[in-house]
Structure prediction request, 288 residues.
Amino acid sequence: MIIVAGSASSKLAARVAKLLGCPLAKSEVTRFPDGESYVRVNHNFKDEHAVVVQSTYYPQNDNFIELFLLLDAIKDLGAKRVTAVVPYFGYARQDKRFKPGEAISVRTMCKLVERAGADDIFTIDIHEEEIMANFAIPAYNLTAMSLIGRYVSRLDLRDPVVLAGDQGALHHAKRAAAEFMADYDYLEKTRQTSTKVAIRPKRLNVSKRDVVIVDDIISTGGTVIEAIKILKKQGARRIYAACTHPVLVSNALRKIIAAGARKVIATDTIEHKTSVISVAPVIAERIR
Ligand code: R5P
Prediction:
């Protein structure tokens, strides 16, 4: 097995290769003068199982094109099997036609990954599990929530609660909390009058307790900032925000800290200064 590092996941690919004791091939990615992408992997892939690690965060379009070019080139260079590891799968939030006429973007990306030559695909905490059904090849959605749980368990939290921003993310909170036998819950919106909505943890009282908000993605930070404001009003002690994918656009990190979070904790599916947890063990264990 050989691990191929896409330019968006060079550090993560190296960590996976190290854990597996596999060789690491680096791709050469440059631009033609007109802006088109140029990709080269100078390695003999004949009869090898190649694992391409490439996240598709910003610039999403460039990173997806690089992934397609890598998969196709490696297959064409004689690899007997090509596995795509796409730790952050971009476009996943456009998984439905919300308005008539819209492209279902993630479905198109799934088709293209497959058509480019992937024999199987692994991703991590994809926005909706159902997206994996777009693939005809074996497709696996791994999770970083146990790693997140293990990390926060070392933070010396007082009477901790792991909280999901909504019911849909409750499975993330449950998984992270299981690592240190913490309580978990989700924020529920209840309409009180036609103009008033109350948001509070469904079951638990957070007063004087440390809270870890978990989510798959933090992008603009809007969701987590709203949660922080509510939790502070309800008397939470220290608040941490944790996610798998630190997309963190538009000064989101600064805004989350200004809203009252102690720290933002994330993984290296996206290489960012908040990426204090590596998902390499989760990937290595599954592709071994
Ligand atoms: C939503 O369903 C996701 O799980 C995240 O809560 C959302 O994408 C976060 O986005 P933002 O940080 O922009 O509120």
